[in-house]
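Morning run. Coffee first, then this:
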Amino acid sequence: MQRRHFLKHAVVSGLATALGPAILRAEKNKPQPNIIYFNVDDLGWTDTGFMGSRFYETPNIDRLAAEGVVFTNAYAPAANCAPSRACCLTGQYGPRHGIYTVGKSERGSAEYRKLIPVPNRTVLPDEAITIAEALKTGGYVTCHAGKWHLGDDPRTQGFDVNFGGSTYGLPRSYFSPYQNKYLPDGPEGEYLTDRLTSDVLTFLEQVRNRPFFLHFAFYSVHTPIQPKPEKAAPFKLKKGDLQHHHADYAGMIASVDENIGRVMQKLDELGLSENTLILFCSDNGGVFRITRQYPLRAGKGSYYEGGIREPMIVRWRGVAPAGRLCAVPVSGIDFYPTFLDAAGIPVPRGKVLDGLSLMSLIQQQGTQTERPLFWHFPVYLQAGNGETRDPLFRTRPGSAVRFGPWKLIEYFEDGAIELFNLESDIGEHHNLSDLVPEKARELNQLLRAWREDVKAPVPTRKNPAYNEAAEKQAINQFFFKKNKENEK
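And here it is:
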């Protein structure tokens, strides 16, 4: 792929360098919108007030929802952190950049893995042109704050400014000292979410007269669960339910909400709110042992709905009508073309985008052609989640597709197929592959054709360390223990 000359050759060391002459739009009376992408780590589909939680409290995020369009069928393009972020920032499905999971692909006990998984890439390749790089060509100043997890420094991937982004997938501590080479320590006990927001507010003040792109990727609410004590305290007195009851986790959500409110207030103070597109989303499902996403099945790391369906809001005053719901299925791969469309910037030459611009849905004007959404996971992810296909892995190698109300999952180890109708069975309890075989064949053929088109690798080599007897014994022991616990 032919690269533009300025994208990868230098790390921009400071904000002053970033504020060079902007490229003016042809339509001078229509200034480019500022773009803020709030990406909350591990926040589940129901973990906000606007999505129905009666335990977690998110008044500022709820206000965003009331002032914008809420997407009720929004999906992460992957079920865990790094691959989801890689897809969103490149606008491409996993097979195009090779990041499928966090760390190595051989996760979980070797004697339970039937196949040799596809090797996993952990650093976003240089040839993957990010949304930050594309927006820079149109005069945008770009800033990353928080979790990066796709290499050492986001400034090598088109971001002019970096507050705290590095290889880390989680913070060493949510309290200073942070032990983060891209975030100088603050006073002892300073809270990470507060600190990142303070740095972001300074950035907003400095770029108030230039179009900017802010990727605010909170480390929260990823583990370790470390809230500010005063934020968690009210929830320790509040009655939860089977779904939401974790007071410390609720305290972390409250801090994220408070700091999103600080950003919104700063936009108001600077007179930027009217011309700022805000997209709020998560990177994958909530962690099942901490927060449940009922009626959705499972959680982070699973390709059932609880692992990939996300809360999502777009607020853009004067463009996105307030208080609307959109049930059209959308994905994080759509963010890249949406931001370019909003900014009036063409797709970079030679760049392949797998998503679609959501502007017609954001504006609530016209319709969008129905299209399938895909997921590909040719690796293993060990247990740590409830309600999955088996207790030994959150996900075994496979692919999935959603098209209309139908969702199909294909597993590579044994060729098994699961087919669900999400309109009648959002919890994915009833596998209809035998009852509606023609629909299963249709979606499976669609999925296989897509894999061929994007050259998605499928593992086929047998794992010599696999032990069928040991696997069966482990599964039997799990259910024996579970049944005993249920009897108590």
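Residues 298 and 306 are 5 Å apart (CA to CA). Good start to the day.
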